[in-house]
Design goal:
The protein is mainly alpha-helical. Helices cover about 50% and strands about 5% of the residues. The chain has one domain.
Length: about 160
């Protein structure tokens, strides 16, 4: 994966009620700010096909802990090469647990101006949660992180 993901710490943090509540509050506030901007999804899930567009989604251990706590397993990474395994027919099947990058990104031109500032502000708040809950910080690629968590959970 390039960056060493602290999988054991992520899995342990997934049972920390205070951390999960903090992330839920952060996401609710972020979603409210984004909703107030009224962005429009133009591509109905095409942005989830990372390989087709040559981009990557990056996440942190705090986001992964929240995701692990809220989502029971996921589709095989093998049959979705380069695409998020949680996107089906233009819909996110884990919408409430999706990471910050999925919440902030809209390809609509009117959204391009506010996204960088919103991303940086939210990432600063996420870093503070890492410090508060003594969880090692890393910025890791989403698909690789999901595969690594699955590998550790399977014991392979």
């Amino acid at each position: 994966m390039g960056v060493n993901l602290p999988v054991a710490e992520v899995l342990e943090a997934a049972s920390n009620a205070a951390l999960l509540s903090s992330v839920e509050t952060l996401y609710a506030e972020l979603d409210a700010r984004i909703d107030a901007r009224n962005p429009v999804c133009l591509n109905r899930g095409d942005c989830c096909k990372f390989g087709a567009f040559g981009h990557h989604l990056f996440v942190t251990p705090v986001e992964l802990a929240y995701f692990v706590a809220r989502v029971e397993g996921h589709d095989s990474m093998d049959d979705r090469a380069g695409s998020c395994p949680h996107q089906h027919e233009g819909r996110c099947t884990v919408r409430d647990a999706r990471p910050m990058g999925c919440r902030v990104f809209f390809c609509e031109p009117a959204s391009q101006g506010w996204q960088p500032d919103e991303s940086e502000d939210t990432l600063t708040r996420i870093k503070a949660l890492h410090q508060r809950f003594n969880l090692p910080y890393a910025y890791v690629e989403w698909l690789g992180a999901l595969a690594e968590i699955d590998r550790v959970r399977r014991g392979s």
